[in-house]
Amino acid sequence: MALHFVVDAPLQAGVGETVDLTGAEAHHAAGVRRVRAGETVTVGDGAGVWVTGEVASVDPKRVSVIVRSRVEQPAPARRVTLVQALAKGDRDELAVQASTELGVDGIVPWQAARSVSRWAGPKLERGVQRWTTIAREAAKQAHRPWLPAVGAPVTTRELVARAEHTRMLVLEPTATERLSEVDLGDGDVDLVVGPEGGISPEELDELRRAGATLVRLGDTVLRTSTAGPAALGVVNVAWGRW
What we know:
The protein is an alpha/beta fold.
């Protein structure tokens, strides 16, 4: 499979024209992946445009690719968003990475009551940027034409308000309904994952009253880093993505 790269601006180049990789992506292509002139690569813009081309020239600061074919992939008709509670260590980041590889369409950080990690001030902006970078690299590795957007962190109050307007499924080991048996509806879906200490009873009650459905994945308790990706797999099968 050809190496894949992502540019930050919309891809306008057509067949026969040139796409330039610059900055960090040029360094990655030239210095890390060591592409060579004549090699076939693919380039996307993360917004549906996907080109296959031939490397024309290689420089640490600029790698030029001549476009041989161009495809525009439409956005998904239905979107699944991971609402991931902030967690200690890198567990929330692992969830972002794996979920992106598995096809999640959006990611929303959640400052849950039991979240040990706290984003505030400059740390908030750094956290969003960190998750965005992880999602971008995971999407590139998975050869995805669309990059999932990382939204601004939400509080429990904001999450409850969101539950009033979307199909929200809260992953909770004590729930009686199984995710595989729940009607997903015909619109977008939010999958909510709590922190390592679980979602508090008060938060579960608030979300349930707002219209969210509590679901479980099975008879075991999964880590916050694996629950979201596991649930996403169930949705992918139900929607026919897999």
